[in-house]
TrEMBL record:
Keywords: Acyltransferase, Transferase. The keyword Acyltransferase applies. It holds the Pfam family HMG_CoA_synt_C. It comes from Fructilactobacillus myrtifloralis. This is Hydroxymethylglutaryl-CoA synthase. Belongs to the thiolase-like superfamily. HMG-CoA synthase family. One of its GO terms (molecular function) is hydroxymethylglutaryl-CoA synthase activity.
Length: 393
């Protein structure tokens, strides 16, 4: 019995910053961002969105009358949690009207959280093949205005249903894992902005990639030649390319060309959105599935997940016959194309206005936000969420 990803959904806010505009405002050469970082645009989150609403907006399109009843496990992967105690999965369960009999909880390990959730969900479905799990990776990547990490900000969510006999990607039974206590990136409890040792983090990322991919091949008799494509956690897309290049000398020239071509397909969406933390690997996977011209059923895709602090994992997915979804692709491309472009002054104002952890009472007008699920404020330290009546079942 195969177990893996049946459906994928994606959401990012309806606003973005063009990185050419940011480069000029910061007196930088735009090519430093477009080529050196590998990013073109960056999602900008309004006050009416957070990790919970983005997760709900990503998951809603992949739920229907059939799989909604089958979901018995809800895992919320994030490092942008809205409460130190209450799980975002509980809010999500309520907003989406999912079964009350489902287990629902949150996982945190930097950008690795959604992968941990997928591995747990995979084992759950193996034991309960008639049931499904909903796993989301949802985050707001914030480093601060005029910081070194500013260009690698972003926000959004990827939602996945995990099932037996999946239509999109069957996941390998095994994976290779490596972890170590490393201070390359962290976010203290009283901060919404992350702290990062950028060059160190980049080096650790590449080291963990080589450790895990080589260990996987050695332990599970997988040859690099078996892999048609490699997908990466992409805090910025150039980092994945750097990691890929470290492995290129180990394969033929023809395979190098193939991997590089598939990598370009896998970063189309990420270049337009920016960093999703827990969702970045799975947005890259989604981009590969939608944008690759050479991918076909039966192809094996390597997935490298990385979470600072640090945790790395490499595993393999086998593309299934139902992986192409033209309706999903059209919906994502239209949503990205129709976003509102903010100038740098607007972006900076929105950045400073986004609600902080110290907000006890605030009312937010969600009217400008056309999303199905919105955050409307805080009353007596209790977060308030709303599903638009016109979108309700």
């Amino acid at each position: 019995m195969n177990v893996g990803i049946d459906k994928l959904g994606f959401y990012t806010p309806a606003y973005y910053l063009d990185l050419v505009d940011l480069a000029r405002a910061r007196n930088e050469d735009p090519q430093k961002y477009l080529v050196g970082i590998g990013q073109a645009q960056q999602a900008v989150i309004p006050q009416s969105q957070d990790a919970v609403t983005m997760a709900a907006n990503a998951a809603s399109p992949i739920l229907d009358a059939t799989n909604r009843k089958q979901i018995s496990l809800i895992i919320f992967g994030t490092e942008s949690g809205v409460d130190n105690s209450k799980s975002g999965a509980i809010y999500l369960q309520n907003l989406l009207g999912l079964p009350r009999s489902a287990r629902a909880f949150e996982i945190k390990q930097a950008c690795y959280g959604a992968t941990a959730g997928i591995q747990m969900a995979k084992e759950f479905v193996k034991n309960h093949p008639d049931q499904q799990a909903l796993v989301v990776g949802t985050d707001v990547a914030r480093y601060g205005l005029q910081t070194a990490g500013e260009v690698t900000q972003g926000s959004g969510a990827v939602a996945m249903t995990i099932s037996a006999n999946p239509r999109t990607l069957a996941l390998s039974a095994n994976s290779s894992v490596y972890s170590d206590d490393i201070m390359d990136f962290w976010r203290p409890l009283n901060r919404t902005e992350a702290l990062v040792d950028g060059h160190y983090s980049n080096d650790i990322y590449q080291q963990f990639f080589l450790k895990t991919v080589h260990a996987y091949c050695e332990q599970y008799q997988c040859s690099l030649t078996d892999l048609q494509a490699l997908t990466f956690h992409l805090p910025y897309t150039k980092l994945g390319l750097k990691a890929l290049r470290t492995l290129l000398p180990e394969v033929s020239a023809a395979q190098q060309t193939q991997w590089l071509s598939e990598f370009e397909a896998s970063r189309v969406y990420n270049r337009q959105v920016g960093n999703l933390y827990t969702g970045s690997l799975y947005l890259s996977l989604l981009s590969l599935l939608d944008q690759s011209e050479g991918l076909s059923a039966g192809a094996k895709v390597g997935l490298f997940s990385y979470g600072s602090g640090a945790q790395g994992e490499f595993f393999v997915g086998t593309v299934q016959p139902g992986f192409r979804d033209e309706q999903r692709r059209s919906r994502i491309e239209a949503a990205l194309a129709q976003r509102t472009r903010l100038d740098v002054d607007q972006y900076e104002e929105w950045f400073t206005q986004w609600p902080t952890f110290n907000t006890a009472n605030v009312t937010i007008d969600p009217a400008p936000d056309g999303a199905e699920f919105v955050f409307t404020g805080v009353v007596d330290n209790k977060r308030q969420y709303q599903r638009r009546p016109e979108n309700a079942d």
